[in-house]
């Protein structure tokens, strides 16, 4: 008896005759009912378990991807947006050194005169900008940490520093420098970050520095002078342009 058959893609066709069915390919799927058309029997393709798992995996991945895209594109609530901005503003700068300088009764680049006991800072010229202008950094607060002993102090930007080592170095008033190092050390490695004016990130002694900084307001300056101890009595010499 002559074999006859036709295999097309994954579909299996079988030749039928009066006595038996001779296969032209693999055995039919036993649990799948065949379709009979004339002298041919058509068996649907078998879908393996591995293929089903692949389809399920791809579908799950696509669904997860679409959810992630929709969440990312959703608008951020205002309070969270402010939090993100605050975190970005608290970037910690490294690789700089802290030094100190004397005021000598001369106004800084920001236009105010300070005493050596005031907690102020002079920023590197690259960050400050044109020394002939009042920089946007003037009046901002900076928290400085001595890497060697982890002591910190919060100071207010009041001047520029054309002689600082690099853009992450800061020149401090004598009063601020002695909060994190000794005069004999002269220069110490630091990290620093911008902070809010409430001084929440400062050391225990930085509260007096915050009061001194706020003394640029004439009314608060008189209050600071009356409440200061013997170590900060030089605030009486503070005048502003």
From TrEMBL:
Chain spans, region Disordered: 194-241
Family annotation (CDD domains): DPBB_RlpA_EXP_N-like (cd22191)
Keyword Ligase on entry: no
Composition bias, Low complexity: 197-209, 224-241
SUPFAM superfamilies, A to Z: Barwin-like endoglucanases (SSF50685)
Coiled-coil blocks: none
Start and end residues of each RlpA-like protein double-psi beta-barrel domain: 95-191
TM annotation in the entry: 47-71
Keyword Signal belongs to the record: yes
Keywords tagged on the record: Membrane, Signal, Transmembrane, Transmembrane helix
Protein name: RlpA-like double-psi beta-barrel-protein domain-containing protein-containing protein
């Amino acid at each position: 008896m002559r074999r006859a058959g036709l295999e097309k893609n994954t579909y299996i066709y079988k030749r039928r005759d009066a006595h038996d069915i001779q296969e032209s390919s693999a055995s039919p799927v036993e649990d799948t009912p065949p379709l009979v058309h004339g002298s041919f029997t058509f068996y649907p393709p078998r879908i393996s378990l591995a293929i089903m798992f692949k389809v399920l995996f791809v579908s799950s991945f696509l669904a997860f991807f679409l959810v992630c895209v929709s969440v990312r594109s959703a608008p951020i609530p205002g309070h969270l947006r402010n939090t993100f901005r605050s975190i970005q503003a608290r970037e910690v700068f490294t690789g700089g050194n802290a030094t100190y300088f004397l005021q000598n009764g001369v106004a800084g680049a920001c236009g105010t005169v300070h005493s050596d006991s005031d907690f102020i800072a002079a920023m590197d010229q690259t960050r400050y900008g044109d020394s002939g202008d009042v920089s946007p950094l003037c009046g901002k607060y900076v928290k400085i940490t001595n890497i060697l002993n982890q002591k910190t102090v919060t100071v207010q930007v009041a001047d520029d520093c054309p002689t600082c080592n690099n853009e992450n170095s800061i020149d401090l008033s004598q009063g601020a420098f002695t909060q994190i190092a000794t005069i004999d050390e002269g220069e110490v490695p630091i990290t620093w970050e911008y902070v809010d004016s409430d001084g929440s990130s400062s050391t225990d002694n930085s509260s007096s520095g915050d009061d001194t900084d706020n003394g640029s307001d004439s009314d608060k300056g008189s209050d600071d002078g009356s409440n200061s101890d013997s170590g900060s009595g030089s605030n009486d010499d503070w005048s502003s342009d």
